[in-house]
Specification:
The structure is a homodimer of 322-residue chains.
Chain A: H1 5-16, H2 20-31, H3 35-44, E1 52-58, H4 64-77, E2 82-86, H5 97-106, E3 114-118, H6 127-141, E4 146-152, H7 156-163, E5 167-172, H8 179-184, H9 187-190, E6 193-196, H10 204-215, E7 227-230, H11 239-254, H12 258-286, H13 289-301, H14 307-317
Parallel strand pairs in A: 1-4, 1-5, 2-3, 2-4, 5-6, 6-7
Helix pairs in contact in A: 1-2, 1-3, 2-3, 2-6, 4-11, 6-7, 12-13
């Protein structure tokens, strides 16, 4: 059932007022890539830009979910509206996303200032990053001033998601063996603040030493030197200190050009993705649709044609001049 | 310097003969998205389809690299040509890919039947999955009958890469805490064989029990029940048994339609990606190129326009009829 412009306008208004049901419905529309989602986001876009996005990333088992939960609770105590987006496919909360949200929400039952959503979208190219970005926009429009995005720190898709964030927390725990070695490749470069969680465990001091040693090798970005904060999230220890460092980071960059550069780079990526899927849709419409694409895929699999010839066939029928 | 058709034909011939330098050059061309890479792959395509692709995935620290190394050595002893593609961004071998390949190659120095390549490509949408797929095709054309693809098992990009594989090994080790809980979401569904590595460690029996209990919940796919193989890769223990299970899996599916379905699904994804990047290239050419896209991205970041209006501007100038 297509919605009238009037209905979408009313829906947008309810989202802006932070109505939980309207926000939930909008997220579902985004996840399903429903046509009204675009109209809604377009209406809401001018109301966005006020949220601060913190990405929380790290290997499975580092306690990211608990950390996000406690950090969210900390912001709520300061009376800031909080949105949580869990896109960690290894999180016990995702997969069974709805159940997961229920479990999470229990601790914040009746608090309309804390909105939590797990993303279970998978399976199409870039879909998870797109959906996450759109849900963040939506929460932004709904007045959430602190948005926390939880994700595991490996994989291009996760890196794309983390790139959304204004501030990136990389979570580590003692006793995961050669973890520092392993994380070097990707995470070291994207972390603004390193969280040494489960800091009451054996090996925490050694890990901190190693981390600090490694961080001396990292070039400061626009005058910011990544640092280490120790937490025991399960006991809410170190959470206030962590929030203070995030705030310090925020102040540091609000004044610099780095934030604008980062946001522009983010939108370049987003526009590219949006453009890509629109173009694909149009091209297929002219060339026999998904059915013809599937037929060609079978022919390529059987070596009856080659992939380049297949792509050229669709391009030539796509209605694209040149 | 553009290559003549004649030169590319000669190059393809050398790749088909398995000439190491020609294969290396071709991989570099693929990674750089060089125009001659397409022509080369088109020429080589009819010679592909003979390789068996085994994907090896699991969390950082599970010993995937060693396992791949030993499995490769096992196939070499059987006189099968082996190609290894390491796309694990957390692997100590990637990042510094060239050094990594050198370190890896040492154990196989002078063995032209073992070709190892680390993929360091990053940063553009779907780029890693595309490049990995093309390198696998190339190794296939070069006569590698066993191709091993190592990747970490999280993230959409990694899932896309693993989807390339005919058989997927999921590697676990004892003592990584709530790992089984964590891996449930994504890896449980894609594993054909579960490898319990470092099986001499404490907790191996318990992990195996948990795994087996969990596997009873997994629906068999076309009559195949995922199973567990114990290995100590560093001591080459269990490698022959693992190879035997991979062979059993292969026999099971060579006869079924599942392999064809999987390959067709793979090519559908690949064609979609290829089409998407071609379309994008063309559309931008007509609409002011990347410079205009960057300008629009800045305007969106500053809320001077909205992303949908920006995309529509490019679409309308793209020369796309409709």
């Amino acid at each position: 059932m297509p919605l009238t412009a009037d209905t979408v306008e009313k829906w947008a208004e309810q989202v802006r007022r932070g109505d939980v049901r309207s926000v939930s419905r909008a997220i579902t529309a985004i996840e399903n890539h429903a046509p009204e989602a675009e109209e809604l986001l377009r209406l809401l876009f001018p109301a966005t830009g006020g949220a601060y996005l913190t990405g929380v990333t790290g290997a499975p088992g580092t306690g990211k979910s608990t950390l996000v939960d406690r950090l969210g609770a900390h912001y709520r105590k300061k009376n800031e509206q909080v949105g949580v987006i869990a896109v960690d496919p290894t999180s016990p909360f995702t997969g069974g996303a709805i159940l997961g949200d229920r479990i999470r929400m229990q601790g914040h039952a009746g608090d309309s200032g804390m909105f939590i959503r797990s993303m279970a979208t998978r399976g199409f190219l870039g879909g998870l990053a797109r959906a996450t970005a759109e849900v963040a926009l939506l929460m932004d429009a709904a007045g959430k001033k602190q948005i926390l995005i939880e994700t595991v720190g490996v994989g291009q898709d996760e890196v794309d998601i983390v790139r959304l964030a204004d501030c990136v927390l990389v979570v580590l725990v003692p006793g995961m063996g050669d973890d520092i070695q392993n994380m070097k490749a990707g995470l070291m470069e994207i972390g603004d603040i390193f969280v040494l969680n489960k800091a009451d465990r054996e090996g925490a001091d050694r890990l901190e030493e190693q981390l600090l040693a490694m961080l001396t090798l990292v070039m400061p970005r626009d005058g910011w030197h990544p640092l280490v904060v120790r937490t025991v999230a399960t006991e809410s220890k170190g959470i206030a200190e962590l929030a203070a460092e995030v705030a310090r980071f925020r102040n540091h960059f609000e004044s610099s050009q780095e934030r604008n550069r980062k946001r522009a780079a983010h939108w370049k990526l987003r526009l590219t993705e949006m453009l890509g899927s629109r173009l694909l849709e149009r091209a297929l419409r002219g060339a026999g649709g998904e059915a013809r694409l599937e037929e060609l895929a079978r022919e390529v699999a059987e070596r009856k044609t080659d992939p380049f010839a297949a792509v050229n066939e669709i391009l030539s029928k796509s209605g694209f001049s040149s």
